[in-house]
Amino acid sequence: MAAPLPPKPGLPGMPPQPQHLPPGATAAPGQQPQPGAMREFSPVFLCRIGQETVQDIVTRTMEIFQLSRATQLPNGVTQSQAMYQDRFGKLQEHLRQLALLFKKLRLLYERCVEMTSDLQEAPAELVPYVGEELLSAKVEPCNPAIIQERKEVMEKVRQKNQEMKILMDQMRNLLWDVNAMLTLRK
User: Fold this and answer.
1) Alpha helices in the chain (DSSP H)
2) CA–CA distance from 90 to each of 31, 62, 69, 71 (Å)?
3) Residues 66-97: pLDDT tens digits?
């Protein structure tokens, strides 16, 4: 299911890509490319391989959990030692393959980052602000009637949220009272 770690210049099991020759150089007809020539894969292709690797990781992890679930803890009953050794061997093999898949995924990630470093921008803050008002994005000036309508809608939403909070508190108190009465009744 999982292949061993790929070497850095090219990934085994992938279809051959055209060789990139320096400008002005042409390959002679019938001449085989040199083994030291570096093959380039597109980042999209590497991402597809990465996606398949992630699917393999998920599959292996599910198999590990299934093996763990099927294993009975020792409860005084003697089971076959060979059965335990077999399950232990399978578990070790799955863990070894899982480690290899994670290494392969790391290599693919590093290769994609390396190939697309000129395209990437520094990521913006990904964690949303909690408890702070977000800075509004720069927008074109709107009609004052639209701005007023937006303010009215926002105020209505705040009022409805406050009403819902009050209702939830009342329901919580009612449930506490009902549970207390049921407890006293028993």
Assistant:
1) 43-70, 81-115, 144-185
2) 46, 13, 14, 12
3) 888 877 766 666 667 777 788 888 889 999 99
